[in-house]
Amino acid sequence: MGRWFRSALIASTLVIVTWTSMDQAKAYDLDTPSIVTKTPTIGRRGLYIVQPDDTLWDLCEVFFGEPWFWPSLWSYNPQITNPHWLFPGDLIQIRRPQPPGNTTLIWSDSRYTTEKPNLEILSRYVGYLPDRPFRRSGEIVHARESHVTLGEYDEIYIQFGVDTEVRKGQRFTIYRYEGQLQHPKDGDLVIGHKIRHLGIAKVLSADAQFVKALILKSYEEIHRGDLITSIFPHAWVVGPVENEAEVIAQIVDYQSPTTFAGQWQYVYIDKGRNDGIVRGNRFVIERRGDGLWELDGNADDIPVTKFPWETYGEVMVVESFEETSLGIVSRAIRELVRGDRLRMVPGY
Q1: Predicted TM-score of the model (pTM)
Q2: Each residue of 110-132: pLDDT tens digit?
Q3: Do the strands 211-218 and 190-206 form a parallel or antiparallel pair, or are they unpaired?
Q4: CATH class of the domain at 239-344
Q5: What would the pLDDT profile of 93-115 be if each residue is shown by its tens digit?
Q6: 103-142 in b/e burial notation, b at 16+ Cβ within 10 A?
Q7: Topology given in CATH for the domain delimited by 47-93
Q8: Are 332 and 263 in contact, with CB atoms under 8 Å apart?
Q9: CATH topology (fold) of 131-234
Q10: Residue 128 φ then ψ, to 5°
């Protein structure tokens, strides 16, 4: 009896030990991270496959060591319609910066010198609509689907406030109104409208009451009440074009809702095609006065007009309208503000 009891006790102990060891092994496997390389793999053509939870910010920090490089990485990949949404399996073109060559230091009269770089910008038509097409916009009044949020391949019904010729197969841009664009020197002067691009719609049929359309592309969620305007290119490449005349303009506003603007941000300009401005023209950004103190006109202050104009950056025009333009800050050595002066230098 005692021998049998000892044998049974030993057997049960072995079972418990074996089960405990297997359980610990499983727990260890679950808690141990997978073996990954320090830098994600890139194909021979410089293509990277998006993984879950990837962002342009993180990829730039991994590949370039600088997360703020993400707008440039976005510009290399026009297929990315929204930089905040990457989907696993998508391909991203990764271009590594070329190592710098020999550097020569030249003493200059200013910290900022104008030059003619071989610069090309992949531009996106963002956040702006002139007054005339805005007044002729249509509206999504109804939808066939029963859900609140609309997206790709949902069918919508459009009404136009003015007589608009619409034909089957015609495409329109879907957008959301975000407010008026007012001149910084004259708050009563409306020079355009700030919008948010939402997608593209294709007309399926049109009659006297409704225009029926299909949402072909959606960059964000779309709702009843969003607006429709004529289709326009959403991205294109712009290179520098020599300026033919001197034009003085101002930065009216920025595409981003920020207090200051910096390099690679979109800005709105208060001059356009009527002033001879075309895609590729470049403005220099100028200020004068004290860089720290605001001169308020006291008797002890030197008049601002006595100071020379100093150059702080450049803006390249990526689209020109009749009275306004859209530009990208291609260079800047300090933050920019609304109302900063722009000057188009002849021959530059």
Answers
A1: 0.57
A2: 555 555 556 666 656 566 777 66
A3: antiparallel
A4: mainly beta
A5: 886 545 455 555 555 555 555 55
A6: eeeeeeeeebeeeeeeeebbbbbbbbbbbeebeebbebee
A7: Membrane-bound Lytic Murein Transglycosylase D; Chain A (3.10.350)
A8: yes
A9: Thrombin, subunit H (2.40.10)
A10: -150, 140
